[in-house]
Write a structure and sequence with these properties.
The protein is of the alpha/beta class and about 375 residues long. The chain folds into 2 domains: about 270 residues, 3-Layer(aba) Sandwich (Carbamate kinase), CATH 3.40.1160; about 100 residues, Archaeosine Trna-guanine Transglycosylase, Chain: A, domain 4 (Roll), CATH 2.30.130.10. Helices cover about 35% and strands about 20% of the residues. The chain has 15 helices and 16 strands. Strands 1, 2, 3, 4, 5, 6, 9, 10 and 11 form a 9-stranded mixed beta sheet that branches. A 5-stranded mixed beta sheet has the order 13-12-14-15-16, with helices on both faces. A two-stranded antiparallel ribbon has the order 7-8. The longest helix has 22 residues. Belongs to the glutamate 5-kinase family.
Length: about 375
C-alpha cells in the first residue's frame, strides 16, 4: 500500500506483548561523532511506558564502534580495518550500555552474541534461556553482536538481521526497527523526488526488494536491504516488523500510544516451530552431505536422512553440528543437525542402518539426521 504523498500515514501498531527494538548507530551518534542521547531519550521513554503497561522490550543496540571511535585521538590512523574496528567496539561497548542505563530506571543487562552462538544448538538454547530469565527478572537486555572477537560477523553481519533472530529467540510478537529513515519508499527518497512511501507490505517480493537502496549513514553497517532481510526472517517466524524514523520525536512519542508512521511488514500466516526456524536461519554450516535422488524424495516426504541415501561428505564436522544436505546436482535442499561426525558418515556411505554399529563400533541411532532436526527447503525444488 503506497501513500499518495511523501508523508507516511498514521497506523496502529500490531498487537504485542513482547517486542524487540533495534536502534541504529546513526540514532546514537552526535555531530561530534560520539554518543548522544538526543534520540535515545524518546526511545527510552517508550521502553519505560511499555514496561509500565506490562509488556517486555528487548533492546538490540548498535553504536559501539561509533562510540569507540570518538575516544581515540584523531591522529591515531584510519580506523577502517577489521582489527581497528574490533578494538573500537571493545572501547565503545561499555559506553553504549552506560548510555541506555542512564536513561532507564530498570536494570540493564548486556548480552553479546555472535553467529557461533546462534549456529550451535546448545549455545542457542543457552542464550534463549538467559534472555527469558532476564525478562522474568524484569530487566532490560541490551544486545549487540560480539564485534570484538567476531570476524565474519563484523564484516558481513548487521544488527537488523540479529534483531530478527533475537525476536524469534525470545518469542517476540513484534520487531521494531528504529532507523534514520521514515520507512520504505518505492525508490530512494534522497535521489528521486517521485519516491512514494510504502505504508504496508503484505509480503516481501522481488519487487519490494528492488526498492531497497544502500546504506544511508557512514556510521552504520546496514541499509534498507538488510532491513528487508530482517523483516523477511521475522515474518517467517510469525513476527510482524515496523520500520520507523527514530529521529522523528513525534513518531517515537506516538509509539507509547499504539500508533506510528512508517512501514508495517506483516507476519506470514504460518509460524515455523522455533526449532525449525533456527535450522532454517542459523548462519553458516559446518559441512555438506550429498544425497541421491531417492533420499531427496524421502526428505521431501518428511523422512529422516539415513546413511543408505548418502553418496558424499564435504567438509569436516562433529556430532551435533549443523550441516547442509544437497542433491547430486549441488542444490541445497535441506539442513539439519548431524548425529555423527564427518569421519563416521564417510564410513557409513550407502550402508544399511543395521550395519552402523558393526562399522563404527558404536551407534547413536539409525538416522544420520532425524526428521525433527531437519528443515527442508522445498522452494528450491519447486
Amino acid at each position: 500500500m503506497h501513500s499518495t504523498s511523501r508523508t507516511f500515514a498514521a497506523q496502529a501498531l500490531p498487537t504485542w506483548r513482547r517486542a524487540v527494538l533495534k536502534v541504529g548507530s546513526s540514532l546514537l551518534t552526535g555531530v561530534d561523532g560520539g554518543l548522544s542521547d538526543h534520540n535515545a531519550r524518546g526511545l527510552a521513554a517508550f521502553i519505560a511506558a511499555s514496561r509500565a503497561a506490562g509488556r517486555d522490550v528487548v533492546l538490540v543496540s548498535s553504536g559501539a564502534v561509533a562510540a569507540g571511535r570518538s575516544q581515540v585521538p584523531e591522529n591515531s590512523g584510519k580506523a577502517d580495518g577489521l582489527v581497528q574496528r574490533q578494538a573500537l567496539a571493545a572501547l565503545g561497548q561499555t559506553r553504549m550500555v552506560a548510555l541506555w542505563q542512564s536513561l532507564l530506571d530498570a536494570p540493564v543487562a548486556q548480552v553479546l552474541l555472535s553467529h557461533d552462538d546462534l549456529r550451535n544448538r546448545r549455545r542457542y538454547l543457552n542464550a534463549r534461556n538467559t534472555l527469558l530469565e532476564l525478562l522474568r527478572l524484569r530487566t532490560i537486555p541490551v544486545i549487540n553482536e560480539n564485534d570484538t572477537v567476531a570476524v565474519e560477523e563484523l564484516k558481513l553481519g548487521d544488527n537488523d538481521n540479529l534483531a530478527a533472530i533475537v525476536a524469534a529467540l525470545v518469542d517476540a510478537d513484534l520487531l521494531l526497527i528504529a532507523s534514520d529513515v521514515d520507512g520504505l519508499y518505492t525508490t530512494h527518497p534522497r535521489l528521486d523526488p517521485a519516491a512514494q512511501p510504502v505504508d504496508r507490505v503484505a509480503a516481501i517480493t522481488p519487487e519490494i526488494l528492488a526498492m531497497a537502496g544502500g546504506a544511508g549513514s557512514v556510521v552504520g553497517t546496514g541499509g534498507m536491504h538488510t532491513k528487508l532481510e530482517a523483516a523477511t526472517k521475522a515474518a517467517k517466524a510469525g513476527v510482524a516488523t515496523v520500520l520507523f524514523n527514530g529521529a522523528t520525536h513525534a513518531t517515537v512519542a506516538e509509539l507509547a500510544h499504539g500508533r506510528f508512521r512508517g512501514t508495517h511488514f506483516a507476519a506470514s500466516g504460518t509460524r515455523l516451530a522455533a526449532r525449525k526456524y533456527w535450522l532454517r536461519h542459523a548462519p553458516g554450516c559446518a559441512g555438506r552431505l550429498i544425497v541421491d535422488a531417492g533420499a531427496v524424495r524421502a526428505l521431501l516426504n518428511g523422512a529422516s536422512l539415513l546413511p543408505g541415501g548418502i553418496v558424499g561428505v564435504e567438509g569436516e564436522f562433529t556430532r551435533g553440528d549443523l550441516v547442509d544436505v544437497a542433491g547430486i546436482d549441488g542444490n541445497v535442499i535441506a539442513r539439519g543437525l548431524c548425529q555423527y561426525a564427518a569421519v563416521a558418515v564417510r564410513r557409513m556411505l550407502g550402508r544399511h542402518t543395521r550395519e552402523i554399529e558393526s562399522i563404527l563400533g558404536y551407534s547413536y541411532g539409525d538416522t544420520v539426521i532425524r526428521r525433527d532436526d531437519l528443515v527442508v527447503f522445498q522452494e528450491v525444488l519447486a
